[in-house]
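Something for you to look into today, if you have time. Could you write out one complete protein record for me, on any chain you like? The space below this message is yours for that.
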Amino acid sequence: MRMIRLKCTDGSKDRTTGMVDSLNKGSLKVTWEGGLGTETYTKTEGGKLPTGLPTAGLG
């Protein structure tokens, strides 16, 4: 079993502890404790953000 523990600088506790469900060279699937559920993170090419992300209010 692999666990992830995060500490957010803004004090949010939404994603503090999660269990890694699967991991391969292209993606990471985590089930977070509490009500957040499961999320899948995908590796991008060249370390850049993918296009089409909602960015309103950033920067």
